[in-house]
Amino acid sequence: MTVKLAPSAPFRLRATTVAAALSIAWCAFAGVGPASAQTVSKPRVQLAQAQPEQPAQGQTFEEEIVPQRYANNADVDSFINDMVARQGFDPAALHALFARVSYSATAVKLVTPSPTPSIKNWRVYQGRFLDPVRINAGVKFWRANQATLQRAYEQYVVPPEVIVGIIVLDALTTLSFDYPNTPNRADRMMTFRKNLEDYLVWTRDSQIDPTTVLGSYTGAIGIPQFLPSSIVQYAVDYDGNKRIDLRTSQADAIGSVANYLSKNGWETGRPVVWNIATDTGSLGIAQAAATGAPEPRWSLQQLLKAGMLMNEPGLDTRTEAGTPVTVVDLPSPGRPTEYTLGLKNFYVLTRYNRSFFYALAVYQLGERVKAQMAATEAGNASTPAESQ
Fold it and tell me: How many independent structural domains does the chain possess?
């Protein structure tokens, strides 16, 4: 059966369950390639925590699966033995779970780098995510959760607009045992294996059937799209019902995002980015200093000494001279590459998602939602109350 997906499908395809997605994440251990897969009719792939989108013309995938690939698999058996020894699992229950999981060639295809890498386009990305639909959704979410967002701000010192930006913008076993043959394959397989372990522990401790949790094809779960390891480390019960539910509780999602950013070093009251002047000299220095790494590498003083000029009225370059920054490059085909400076808070956003595009879009979306909230409130304040 052909599964039709929207244009952004590679970023938003959702597996039937996280248990299946995590089980698909290891296929390299099994040594069975996609050629042995068979095309099987599957239900329409669902978008977790989102409304279904209309399929784009020409965007199709066939769901190729191999049933029972992980039954009687030596590497899976070794993983099960490890979980029994370290985490106290019932071996029969885990063998039964993995026997029900099918290999998905589709998930492998989606995480395999293209032989011809796609061209990054900041303007297209920005336009896709900073549209009126998402801004209005952010305003609606903020208004519906205003008290919870304020409580999270007071507790974790993460501004509401940043939390809203993340949640609105985001509206694991093939990749643990069968991660495709890419340069980072070993590291990624270990990451998915750890997430698989944390997922099984979390569902057991939370008394959740592991076959029922929907997630992305890489195993991200719920409203904030947390990987299982992030759930174990950062998820909190923020609605006070003594259970963590990132799938349906907006309060838990808000508190968990705020806790994640706080524990990763969010600096209250500090900027996220500084704007660079657009003269040729400043852009040339930015180009030379851009490494693509999110970790702040340069001090502001180093870049200023090289001749970079800033477009930040009110910025005290003397007191901020030692501030660590990273040069954020934002390429768009047919246009000069744009640059900005990311501070510590920008780096914290890249801990949530390492993409420069994502981190900046989250920040800008949050700022636009905040501005629309303020404009709406100002308009309401200036409108005379109707007489009774």
Answer: 1
332 in a domain, yes or no? Answer: yes
Q: List pLDDT tens digits, range 177-187.
A: 544 455 566 66
Q: Which domain holds residue 292?
A: 273-342
This prediction's pTM: 0.74
Q: Which pLDDT tens digit goes with each residue over 40-79?
A: 333 332 323 333 333 333 444 455 566 677 788 888 888 8
SS (H, E, C) the chain: CEEECCCCHHHHCEECCHHHHHHCCEHHHCCCCHHHCEECCCCCCCCCCCCCCCCCCCCEEECEEECCCCCCCHHHHHHHHHHHHHHCCCHHHHHHHHHCCCEEHHHHHHHCCCCCCCCCCHHHHHHHHCCHHHHHHHHHHHHHCHHHHHHHHHHHCCCHHHHHHHHHHCCCEHHHHCCCCCCCHHHHHHHHHHHHHHHHHHHHHCCCCCCCCCEECCCCECCCCECHHHHHHHCCCCCCCCCCCCCCCHHHHHHHHHHHHHHCCCCCCCCCEEEECCCHHHHHHHHHHCCCCCCCCEEHHHHHHCCCCECCCCCCCCCCCCCEEEEEEECCCCCCCEEEEECHHHHHHHHHCCCHHHHHHHHHHHHHHHHHHHHHHHHHHHCCCCCC
